[in-house]
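# step 3/5: fold
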Amino acid sequence: MNLQTCISSNPLILMEGALGERLKREFNLKIDETIAMAGLIYEKNGRSALETLWKEYMDISHKYHLPFLATTPTRRANKERVESTGYTEYIIRDNVEFLRQIKGTSEIEMYIGGLMGCKGDAYTGEGALSIKQATIFHSWQANLFKEAKIDFLYAGIMPVLSEATGMAKAMSDTHIPYIISFTIQKDGKLIDGHTIDYAIRFIDDNVSNKPVCYMTNCVHPAIVYEALTHKYNLTEIVRRRFIGIQANTSTLSYWELDGAKDLKTSSPIDWAEAMMKLKSDYQFKIFGGCCGTDHRHIEEIAKRSQ
């Protein structure tokens, strides 16, 4: 089974919960300012911590018999950043292989994704690339994931349509299933002002191979719910194509959360109930966690699948 079939045939699919925040707060690991978590696989403590967290999430998937999507911690491991740190292109392959080893002979239906991200700031859109620039820039990483035989590609926290489109083109050219995940605000728009509806239609119309679906991440489900109530997003294509979220536990805005020193969180039960409103009212299928979440939040989602 591939990712497309998985999404078509399952009413609820789990993604991992937070990694970065938990690695810092629970394991006291230092996250590199340039390539973030991508280099942790070369450190004993980093490997151990990552394995612990992924296995927590995998155990929940196994317990509730749900498909599971996990992504490599490589959002910041683009060519420019990797080369500036002295690492080589093998960092992409090595991250894929490490996650593949953790999957091992697990009996769960699990898909390994190659996580990619925008060149600039995911929360403000500063430094965003044009379509042409983004296609060239992101092809390096997309092609390395292809060589590593990744199951799917995942563009996380994309704030600007031009770069998201270029990213989609780079991913489309690999012929690997892929997902585009936007940075979404309460007004139902990306950071650059394009509506969810327009962004989906624009990308679908400008790539050879369309994304499997669209998502959002690093945002509270209540914000996404409000974003979807706007008339310009109450369309068939949004309802059919925009079907997943990796959610924060705080209702604060991106700019309020970015760089916050203390953990902003909420009850796993309240959070899961807000997530389920997206499932019942907007047919969301893919549910995972971002800042503030841990295994308790993911299990509250899984419980509601039964």
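# step 4/5: annotate
Strands lie at 13-15, 68-71, 110-117, 152-158, 178-182, 213-219, 242-247, 286-289.
# step 5/5: archive (pending)
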